[in-house]
Amino acid sequence: MSTKTNYTKLLQQVKKFVLSYYKAHSNPKFTYHNxxxxxxxxxxxxxxxxxxxxxxxxxxxxxxxxxxxxIAYYAGAENHExxxxxxxxxxxxxxxxxxxxxxxxxxxxxxxxxxxxxxxILQSIICDADLFHLGTDDFxxxxxxxxxxxxxxxxxxxxxxDWRKKTIQLMEEHEYHTDYCRLLLNETKQxxxxxxxxxxxxxxxxxxxxxxxxxxxxxRIFKNGKNTQELSKGVETMFRLTSSNHQRLSNMADSKAxxxxxVNAIIISLLLSLLLRNMTTHHNQxxxxxxxxxxxxxxxxxxxxxxxxxxxxxTFTQQDIDDRNVNLLFFGNFYKMDFDAYRHGMITLxxxxxxxxxxxxxxxxxxxxxxxxxxxxxxxxxxxxxxxxVISVIAFVISSLIK
Length: 403
Description:
CATH architecture of the largest domain: Orthogonal Bundle
Number of helices: 14
Structural class: mainly alpha
Order of helices and strands: HHHHHHHHHHHHHH
Number of strands: 0
Oligomer: single chain
Largest sheet: none
Number of domains: 2
């Protein structure tokens, strides 16, 4: 079970099994933990997994965990994750899956147990997918469905206000574990939390502690400070996620360049050995062979240029610090400096938000420039190889027909 096609077919069987399982155990009491919730979690898991470009087996593990994570909830909320993991394992035993993959699936399902404590990227993805709705516009509808389900199953009548307080506690203790979800969902999650807090505060008599007007002013100040903090976190997350994406794209470009270098180096070595050995008997093939050698050589040159590092002068001056005209976050600007000068510059950077964010902007921009150059050269390498290979093959065919 190693190909993407096989994983895709098996995922279809997993989906079919889970849908039929929910249908067989359908219960109108479960207004939240039902097939709709599972479908939403699977959809969110796909979105997050696609962003992180997981390989086939990891992608399969995350989606299977998403399908099975709440399948045993009908039997009771307590330890339903462990029961779901058992059901998943029993179903998958009939397929040729290795033990490591089965362990990943089990660990992902168990990781969704509250409070969530994922230990790797796969568990983080499924945990964020499970509580994806906290940061969406669909939050209000889903929390109402969950309250209705809770009251029905437990035979209670928890008030809206008490439910809001419990939900506020959950949201304050919760945090998304992937950079992708933090950047995508934190702002809406904070808005949802603020809306709950506002509704709870509307039921309190603030006049007992301070005049109403003063209470309004203090509430505004508190919320503005909180929004400022969230904005700062959002900006930091944006920079971290952007830098991570740039690094991932750079690694992909280097990998593609290495492939081109290896393939063409092998072709060159084979051509040279065959050409020198059979030059007299196949003299009509010399021109096509030289043409192909040229194509291989030019392809390698472009691939090497795409991966060849550029380095700066490695120094900066106090004037650069005073003018905020140096990016101390890039090693190429300080690797020749002594530590005291660098430490002084970094302290200045840390204590000046404008300087700090300006350096982050420069760093992201510089990464983009490097990436653009890499991919232009890499594209040129692929184009030369593709078109040159076609032309060389045609030349070989023509030379053979002429002979």
